[in-house]
Amino acid sequence: MTLPYSTFSAHLDALAARQPGAPALIDQDQPIGCAELRTRSRALAAGLAGIGVKPGHRVAVWLPNCAAWVESFLACAHLGALVLAVNTRFRALEVADILGRGKADWLVYWPGFKGIDFQGILDGVAPADLAGLRGAVALAGADGAAPVSVHGKPVHRYDALLACADPAPAAQANAGVLCFTTSGTTSKPKFVLHDQQTLLRHGMAVAQAFDYDDKACVLASAPFCGAFGFATLVGGLARGVPVVCAPVFNAAESAQAVARHAVTHTYANNEALVGMMQAAAPEAFSSVRLFGFASFTPALDNMLDLARAAHVPLTGLYGSSELIALVAGQPRDPAEGDVSARHLPGGTLIYPDARVRARDPETGQVLPHGQSGEVEILSPSLMQGYLDNPEATRAALTDDGYFRTGDLGYTLTPRQFVFQTRMGDSLRLSGFLVNPVEIEQVVETLPGVRACQVVGATRQGKIVPYAFVLLHPGAQADPAGWTAACKAAMAGFKAPAGFTVLDAFPSVESANSVKIQKHRLREMADAMLLDSSS
């Protein structure tokens, strides 16, 4: 794939010259043209340089989806600063961890934002965790006010930096520019480092793979701070088509935005897409060419029916922080792969020279197509590495350069695969590798059960499945009846060894969804079985 530019500044220069008035962003229904975006981001770069932001500095950007997020990223890219993308769902302990371990020099945030109490959260961060900060940049609130300091560090107004009359410094060459954080469901998040050229190339690959043309318009349904939302943004920027964004995702408002701006593409978790299609009449989606989805909530089985009624084409997706999201999408054309897998997570890799394989986690053997193992991917979108963590970087890669995804799946071709679940969530039962979703879907058909999570627990030295369930209102637990029904519906080794009713599943919020902490469920299940055997 030919890459005309290796930096965002050079790409933005060309975009502004070619189509100055064409909208690059539509922020809360306000269009921002390509030339205007260039002007604003360069002015911000000059302002940031004026307060001391230098090449190599780390700038934590803690903002919702808005023009300021994009301008801050582009300004930092121009200056050669590294953006630490901070999840807007994070709270004080998590923000403190990111600012501290990420060695942030600067923070950009929106203290007066109504949807999230950014200032209150930041006030809850211990001063010691902000010791490395040189200062902060704050967007003014609706009343025009902004704090003058945070824990003794100076706070500069965003609008004042935008008004800087100094010329921006010369653009820096390609270098590391963006760090996503991993979800941290089992350990502290890692910082996944990508350089400008890789991100730009990925945006161009996304635009090509998902058929963007001059009439395309992309809705940003996921936060820019995560790999999913950023891939959506960079695909639009790379192709020069508008990206529609709003600070807070709202299903009904997003459905209205699809109709108002003739949106052609969006990518979201299936829960968000279901909410959008339930919130508007089918004709609201007449402009849509493709909705891509990731199945974070497999129990939502009405998505396909809603899409058919609205004539919305759907396809399953795959991505990660390390490979960037949208690195694969299930094919819509038989020439690109097996279209029967279209509504399954995974897909055909969007780079022609990318490759995928599945490896048996016990024997280390690469498996034939159709057999489940750990998915390994070779892709040009691979991260530079984990920031400040060369050991973790080495451990994540095979000797021949494939990324060990930690996901369970199977291949259909050397470029197409199906994602099943995280490897840590898969179960080795009676010698067979089992996807717990298979068991969960059976349990969720049982009387009274609203939702289920299955984990592997240890009983007398063997791994057995254990089920945690949420009940419908007024329903009663029936472990004996549930066990009998499971044994009648599945192989005996798949029937849960026990059932525990919970009020809610333990979870942690990521940029794209609320992720269930299965390691905590495994600890609970081990304790349950230990108690029952004593």
TrEMBL record:
Q: Name one GO biological process term.
A: fatty acid metabolic process
Ranges of residues in domain AMP-binding enzyme C-terminal = 438-510
Which residues belong to any copy of the AMP-dependent synthetase/ligase domain?
15-387
Which is an annotated Pfam family here?
AMP-binding
Q: Which domain of life is it from?
A: Bacteria
Q: Which InterPro entries match?
A: AMP-bd_C (IPR025110), AMP-bd_C_sf (IPR045851), AMP-dep_synth/lig_dom (IPR000873), ANL_N_sf (IPR042099)
Molecular function (GO) terms for this protein are:
medium-chain fatty acid-CoA ligase activity
- UniProt record similarity statement: Belongs to the ATP-dependent AMP-binding enzyme family.
* Protein name, as recorded: Acyl-CoA synthetase
Task: Give the originating organism.
Answer: Achromobacter arsenitoxydans SY8
